[in-house]
Amino acid sequence: MLNDQPPSRSVFQEWIVNYIASVIDLEPEAIALDRTFHDIGMDSAEVVIMTGVLEEEFAIEVRAELPFEHPTIASFLDALAEKKLIS
Amino acid sequence: MAEQPEIGIVVVSYNMARELPRTLQSLSPDYQKNCPPGRCEVIVVDNGSAEPPDAERFASLGMNVTVRRQQNPGPSPAAAVNMGLALTRAPLVGVWIDGARLASPGLIDACARAAQLHPKPVIATVNFHLGPSEQYLSMQSGYDRLEEDRLLASIDWPRGADRLGEISTQVWHGGRDGPMLESNALFLRRELWDELGGYDEAFEGPGGGAVNIDTFTRACESPGAQLIVVGNEGTYHQFHGGTISNAPGHAMEATKRLAAEYYRLRRKPLRPVKAPRWFFDPVSGALDRKL
């Protein structure tokens, strides 16, 4: 069942930064919002896995291709906001 | 009563009329090096094929093959694996969660030798896809069963089985050098299979993508266990319409779903195993403990 209230952008951003930091063993402060997932150090499979995890974590549905079409954290958040998956 | 085999292999099949006979041939004494009749038994558990395999068809392979049918087959092969684990009598058991995987010709003996190197070994083998790239990619350029048959004929398989590497591609996190996500021929001692409780049937996803990764991860995380990756051997995935391997256009969605299922059940992200591994070279017999 999906959430009635979408997560806020700030909550989602904090989660995704911490998630990526844990995957690639960096401090969250080192994760730039305007760098591509690839440049940050995530390979494509890790991005797909992240999408599955965030679906479970936030009870939302996200197409697996979306983070590849919007390949930075900032642009990914914009796309999620546009789809009203985050507020 | 027949003498207890040293090695048991559990093979799960599902609608693999073309692929399963080849897989079983690749496990047979005539194909496997240093694996005479009696050393190994094979348990095939069919997980609901429209036309289940017939044991008589494999009688000519010269090995002990048992074929059983999972009575209540579901999308996940976990229960079928566990049925096979319960049936085998061997102290060392390897699992082929995907019965469409050919073994390289020294794989069984290499895994048995590797298992003697540690009291609680997790023996993993490298994963390959037949064809010029991972099959969910190559099939978009026309790779199909006919092309695969042509490739196998080009190396004169099975006589040319040592050349499987020439017509194959190692898959992502397949195991040779980097962090390893799973093994499609996973060998554990009976005691460790029992400790793990086999494959976790709470995983219901089709094809076993998440549960195979989960089992490998749990085995490696078991206290005192040691991951040993076997080099120069591996399993080679035949094209058969698998859930992820042969899923152009929705391979990412399928991977996303298995990642979600894993997170739902384990409350941690799916990750390749990064624990220190040993690397066993069965050709030289060398064991590298520094990886």
Notes on the protein architecture:
- Chain A is mainly alpha-helical.
- Chain A has a single domain (9-82), classed as ACP-like (Non-ribosomal Peptide Synthetase Peptidyl Carrier Protein, Chain A), CATH 1.10.1200.10.
- Chain A has helices at 9-24, 37-40, 44-58, 66-69, 73-82.
- The longest helix of chain A is centred in the N-terminal third of the chain and has 16 residues, at 9-24.
- Chain A is globular, with a radius of gyration of 12 Å.
- Chain B has a single domain, classed as Spore Coat Polysaccharide Biosynthesis Protein SpsA, Chain A, CATH 3.90.550.
- Chain B has helices spanning 19-26, 78-87, 107-115, 135-138, 145-154, 190-196, 209-221, 251-266; strands spanning 7-13, 40-46, 64-69, 92-96, 101-103, 121-130, 168-170, 186-189, 226-237, 277-280, 287-288.
- In chain B, strands 1, 2, 3, 4, 5, 6, 7, 8, 9, 10 and 11 form an 11-stranded mixed sheet that branches.
- In chain B, a hairpin with a 6-residue loop joins β10 and β11.
- In chain B, α7 (209-221) crosses α8.
- Chain B: This is Glycosyltransferase family 2 protein.
- Chain B: It comes from Oryzicola mucosus.
List keywords for this structure.
heterodimer, A: 87 residues, mainly alpha, Non-ribosomal Peptide Synthetase Peptidyl Carrier Protein, Chain A, 5 helices, globular, B: 291 residues, alpha/beta, Spore Coat Polysaccharide Biosynthesis Protein SpsA, Chain A, eleven-stranded mixed beta sheet, 11 strands, glycosyltransferase (chain B)
Brief summary of the model shown:
Chain B: Belongs to the glycosyltransferase 2 family. Chain B: Keywords: Glycosyltransferase, Transferase. The complex is a heterodimer of chains A (87) and B (291). Chain A is mainly α.
The amount of helix of chain B comes to 25-40%
Which value, in Å, is the CA radius of gyration of chain B?
17 Å
Enumerate the spans of chain B where pLDDT stays under 50 for 5 or more consecutive residues.
none
Mean pLDDT of chain B: 92
The coarse overall form of chain B would be globular
> Can you identify the CATH superfamily of chain A?
ACP-like
Name the helicity range of chain A: 55-70%
Low-confidence stretches of chain A: none
Topology pattern of chain B, helix = H, strand = E: EHEEHEEHEHHEEHHEHEE
Any idea how many domains of chain B? 1
CATH topology of chain A: Non-ribosomal Peptide Synthetase Peptidyl Carrier Protein, Chain A
Compute the number of strand runs of chain A: 0
